[in-house]
């Protein structure tokens, strides 16, 4: 890193004798790891620089470690993820109706006949799938 690149490690270019803390040392080690992953450092050189980064006391000690490396690239902001479509409440309602039917059957010892149409719709919906999207009218090709 150049003179102005030491700013990321807790010191301005004018105050390079300011003591640094553990956070700055770990940030420098992580940055060295990125340079190592990019192939800019060899294993021995990386080990030496990381050891010197953890032993550094001032921002100037860290700036020396980055003097021959390019400045870090600031990542561009990622595009926000597309909004998910709201989930259907049909499975929740069907489940609640089935639980209600079971509770009624157990407590009053009568088979709730309203459950049969619900089961029929569950069967029909289960064959198509809960999350199937409408894809428009079907188009058949001529043979």
Automatic annotation (TrEMBL):
Sequence ranges assigned to domain DUF1707 in this UniProt record: 18-70
Domain of life: Bacteria
Spans through the membrane: 92-124
Record key words, sorted: Membrane, Transmembrane, Transmembrane helix
Keyword DNA damage among record annotations: no
InterPro entries referenced in this protein's UniProt entry, alphabetically: DUF1707_SHOCT-like (IPR012551)
Name of the protein this chain belongs to: DUF1707 domain-containing protein
Organism (species): Nocardia jiangxiensis
UniProt lineage: Bacteria, Bacillati, Actinomycetota, Actinomycetes, Mycobacteriales
